[in-house]
Amino acid sequence: MKKNWKKVAVLGAAKTGISCANYFSKKGADVLLSETKLKNDIQIKNLSKKVELEFGDHSQKILSCDLIIPSPGVSGDIPILLSAKKKDIEILSDIEIFFLFAKYKMIIAITGTNGKTTTTSMVGEALSDAGYKNIVCGNIGAPVCDFIEKSDAQTYIVMEVSSYQLEYTKNFTPHISAVLNITPDHLHRHKTMENYADIKSKIFTNQKKNDFCILNKDDELCLKLSQKCSSNIRFFSAKENKKELNLKIPGVHNIENALASIEMLTCAGLSKKTILRSLSNFNGVEHRLEFVREINEVKYINDSKGTNVSSTLVAIKSFSQPIILILGGRDKGSPYTPLIPLIKNNVKKIIAIGEAKKKIFTQLKDATDIILLDNVEAAVKKAREIAVVGDVVMLSPACASFDQFKNYEERGKFFKKVVNNL
Q1: pLDDT tens digit string along 371-418?
Q2: Is the CB of residue 193 less than 8 Å from the CB of residue 213?
Q3: CB 174 within 8 A of CB 159
């Protein structure tokens, strides 16, 4: 693989695309940033003036480049990428670019359907508490290419990695990798669970025997993946857990996140005492089972990061109180029926919103009462009307946010704003 690309095309003008375009422009490459949205429909901030921009479609100019970097949200089966593959043009993700060009002491890369952000935050916070220089990046916070020139040979890189980013890696080799779990998600893009799991496995494909891979022993697909892994495997298991964990954040899933973090941090050289002290002080992350406010003894919980069914399952399990559950957004291709047993036991009412509301109603109408509304604001106001003392009102959509919001963060912030204005 060559590293002196002269003409670079970046697909998608969100923050990852802008970050990659700026990096290569600074290196002296001719950069084309290509965005399918119309110019008036997108705000471009902090982009180098040297970068050429195109809007409305991905043009044939892209095929004259010697490197293409698709942003994570760009599907691999769009015509321009299919044409590029036929021409053998190099197609790489942002995490591959970081791996090739940055200096670092160690890369700790974390993937999985659920728990990535919380676990990545746990690991980064523990490294900071122990006095280790570290950067937390990737699918959490700022894009990785923002840090290529801010990292040095003493920096620990803690990277949250999505299947979309792993899809276009070739040599990416973290020193420590983790697959937290694999449950149905992004099937509209990856088509099958087998394909989805194969892409997740790219996080450890290039690892050597002295590298570490952390896998969930309680997850059937993680166990299957372990047969393909040639690095030093460390399993974690909430079922077999005998460690003394004193966590502030609720739920069995957070015990799993903490156990995975312990394995990674131990491999990175931290003492158990240091790790456990840091984990006991960890307050959780925004948009993941985040307590917003209590009004008239009703708790409001922001779980906007619950963008798939398995994540919402975890959220429902975290509360013993009756739940008014706000579901909906853009459907991701998975059925909602796995929620039925928990809904029957824990959820007194569903408020379904967004593009997926009719599918949610059809699949869950026999499990509990369902109210159909248009949006988050209407859902919160209706929940306020019907909630009684001891209830939990929770936004955990089991859907993507893109029907009405730019991302789950924007959706979560809006939910909090509406709740705080009640």
Answers
A1: 999 999 999 999 999 999 999 999 999 999 999 998 999 999 999 999
A2: no
A3: yes
Q: At 57, which amino acid appears?
A: D
The pLDDT confidence band at residue 228, using thresholds 50, 70 and 90, is very high
Q: Which DSSP letter does residue 407 get? A: S
Token pair of 320, please?
């013993």
DSSP helix/strand/coil, 86: helix
* CA R_g for the chain: 22
Q: Which domains does the chain have, with CATH numbers?
A: 7-91 (3.40.50.720), 96-280 (3.40.1190.10), 290-420 (3.90.190.20)
| Mean pLDDT over each residue of the chain, to the nearest integer | 93
pTM for the model stands at 0.79
Residue 88 to residue 85: CA distance in whole angstroms: 5
User: What one-character-per-residue DSSP string does 177-216 give?
Assistant: EEE----S--HHHH-SHHHHHHHHGGGTTT--TTSEEEEE
Distance CA 89, CA 68 (A): 7
Give the C-alpha distances (Å, rounded to integers) separating 177 from 79, 205, 230, 268, 291: 32, 10, 12, 11, 30
The SS3 of residue 399 is coil
Q: Is the predicted pLDDT of residue 36 greater than 60, yes or no?
A: yes
5 φ/ψ sector (left φ>0, alpha ψ -120 to 50, else beta): beta
| Helices within 33-92 (DSSP H only) | 79-86
- Which residue is it, tokens 């824990």? 346
Q: What is the DSSP code string of 357-381?
A: HHHHHHHHTTTSEEEE-SSHHHHHH
- CB atoms under 10 Å from CB of 420, counted, come to 11
Angstrom distance (rounded) from CA 156 to CA 108:
7
Q: How far is CA 397 from the centre of its chain?
A: 15
Does residue 124 register a pLDDT over 70? Answer: yes
Do residues 332 and 185 lie in contact, with contact meaning Cβ atoms separated by under 8 Å? yes
Q: What is the pLDDT of residue 354?
A: 95
The C-alpha angle 298, 304, 310, rounded to 5 degrees, equals 100
Average pLDDT over residues 268-280: 96
Residues 61-105 pLDDT 10s? 999 999 999 998 888 889 999 999 999 999 999 999 999 999 999
Count of Cβ atoms closer than 10 Å to residue 88 Cβ: 7
Backbone angles phi, psi at 117, to 5 degrees: -65, -45
Residue 54 pLDDT > 70, yes or no?
yes
